[in-house]
Amino acid sequence: MTGEPNTTTSNRTITATGTGTAEAPPDLLTISVGVECRRDSVGAAYADAGTTSAAVSGALRRHGVADTDIRTSGLNVRPEFVWRDGGGQQVTGYVTSSVLTVRLRQVSTASAVIAAAVDAGGDDVRLNGLELGFADESAVASLAREAAWQDAAAKAEQFASLASARLGAVMSVAEHPDAQGPVPVARIQRAATSEAISVEAGHASINASVTVVWELLA
């Protein structure tokens, strides 16, 4: 744990920043599945992307993923260009892409579900990343905040003792948001069900950071 405590003797307060972390087995895995189809025409690229996306969604549903846990975003259709000497920039094909954000609530079966989804989409599927977390993180977050508070209080008490003073009432408390992002994984071009990548859940963590201002008593 780290922090940047400081004292200000002119107004008789002491400020300390504490950090804390709490861990627990995750019960939610969020994956990002990309669909990307390159074809000679716009219509073929768009139609095949829809077919692939439907195949992936169907595989997810067959493995128990609810409709409310599958979200489509980022639909994009664009031409691809190549530069040819004497001919300038020319269109070589079209790409349709979209992203499925999927929440898996049975982490223990995630490897099989991911493999089935990728296998259903074939070479047009990309596994962009995953994030382990909690369906309800309030209990774990509470433990992280408690650890952050204790860290700040210990620092403040040490600095008060060094200043031959003691802590008084709490003047203010400010919590800082956790900026932790998703855990990245390598992009996958193709993976058959028999080649499933194992997802090891381990423990997921929540971080908390708090800055507290105490009155400094003589």
TrEMBL record:
GO BP, sorted A to Z: DNA damage response
Pfam families: SIMPL
Stretch list, region Disordered: 1-25
UniProt-listed PANTHER family: PERIPLASMIC IMMUNOGENIC PROTEIN, SLR1258 PROTEIN
Family annotation (InterPro entries): 26kDa_periplasmic_antigen, SIMPL/DUF541
Protein name per Swiss-Prot or TrEMBL: SIMPL domain-containing protein
Signal sequence coordinates: none
Biased composition (Low complexity): 1-22
